[in-house]
Every structure is written in C-alpha cells, then in structure tokens.
Amino acid sequence: MDTHIVKVIKAVYITHDVKCFTVEKPAGFDFIPGQATEVSVNLPLWKNQLRPFTFTCLREQDYLEFMIKIYRDHQGVTNMLGRTNAGAELILHDVFGAIQYKGPGVFIAGGAGITPFISIFRDLYHKNRIEGNSLIYSNKTSEDVIMQDELQEMLKDNFIKLFTRENVLGFRGRRIDRSYLIDHISDFGQHFYVCGPTEFVKSITKDLMELGASIDIIVIEM
User: Which of 22, 119, 135, 209 is 20 to 30 A from 182 via CA?
Assistant: First the structure.
C-alpha cells in the first residue's frame, strides 16, 4: 500500500457541516475524476483510522482537495478533522473508485454524495464538455447544498435541487423516488450516475432499472 504524508494548506467550512481541505500534492500523484483515497490524520491515536474521501479538485492542479462532511456528534475521524487545520498532516493511501465519467447523462446525488461529481463536473467544464449532463441533487435543506454557486454556473438550467426538510412556509418536500424519475426523465437509455447514502443509492438504482435502465449504464460506487 502506497502512503503519502501531506501538509494541510487550508481548511475552511463551506457549509455548516462540510469542511474543505486543500493539501499538498505528492510528486507524481494522480487520480481520475470521481475517484477517492483513504485518509487518516497523522497523529499517534489517529494515523491508523482510515476513512474514504473523494478528490474534488482538477487532476491538473498542483494541490489536492477534499470536501468532508463533519459529524460533530460522533467521536470519530470526521470529528477530528473538524478540529484539524492548516499546518496539520494527513496520510493519503491508495487511490480507488468505480465512479468515473462514461458519457453524457443524469447525475443523481444525495447530500455529501455530490463530492465525486464535483471533480467530474469541474473536469468537463474545464474541457468544454459539460453539455448534455444534468444534476438532480437532494438535500435536507438549502443550507446543506455543497458548492451551489459553482454547480449552478457550470450546469445552468440542468441543475435541479430538491429539499426534503426545508422549514419554510409553503414549502412542500420532494424526494427522488420512482414517481419523480417518471415525471422528470424521458430517456432511460442514457448514463446514470448515482451517489449518496447506501439506501439512497440502492433505492434509486432499483427504480432506474425497473423503469428500463440497464445495470451497465448505471455508475455507482461498488
């Protein structure tokens, strides 16, 4: 297993519970947009506590970036990362991941499941190849949306946001379910990219297949 000790260059919250880490990029280090690595904090009690996080930067950039949801109510790795700032060290391990761009299609994300798609969208936008792709992004509330302005700029009208618990007068929550897919997708022969909580991915994958999408055009993390 390859490991790299890298210094945190910058660590800032970009939502109320998502922290963006910019870290050093080891010489020769590479990844495919959508891929991830296991990360640990380089401290005696934490260096063997590995957790998977997705790269969100462009592969050409001279740094690496991760957007990590911090769970303050758990005494675990993300809680520790919430207290980790510039100057600290992280340990990066092997690169892995099944989520890679296969062609134009519909991206469906739940919560922090947007992170592998951010790198893919940034890469496509950088190469002027983002046309033909759309994003359906589900969160509990508008405060949970990660990188809303940039996603809107890249995808324009092909960026759809759904909120399941928005606490505003007159709001009606909507989830991504079979009924929603029928109402909003006309072509089930295109590529589908799905990422989010395990049950979210299972449910949407099942619905897509029942509506005619074949398993070989549905891209998920196995």
Answer: 119
Q: Roughly how many angstroms between the first and final C-alpha of the chain, as a whole number?
A: 20
d(Cα 196, Cα 210) in Å, to the nearest integer?
20
Sheet containing 134-139, strands listed edge to edge, beginning at the edge strand earlier in sequence: 159-163, 134-139, 105-110, 191-195, 218-219
Task: Count Cβ neighbours within 10 Å for each residue of 147-158 and write b for 16 or more, e otherwise.
Answer: bbeebeebbeeb
**If you classify domain 4-96 with CATH, what class do you get?**
mainly beta
Q: How far is CA 190 from CA 133, 212, 214, in A?
A: 10, 10, 9
Which residues lie below 8 Å from residue 113, measured CB to CB, with a gap of 6+?
Answer: 194, 195, 196, 197, 200, 201
Domain boundaries, the chain: 4-96, 105-219
pTM of the model: 0.94
Per-residue model confidence (pLDDT) at position 74: 82
> CATH top-level class for 105-219?
alpha beta
What is the tens place of the pLDDT at every residue in 50-93? Answer: 999 999 999 999 999 999 999 998 889 999 999 999 999 999 99
> Percent helix, strand and coil across the chain, each rounded to 5?
25, 30, 45
pLDDT of residue 167: 60
State whether residue 65 is helix, strand or coil.
strand
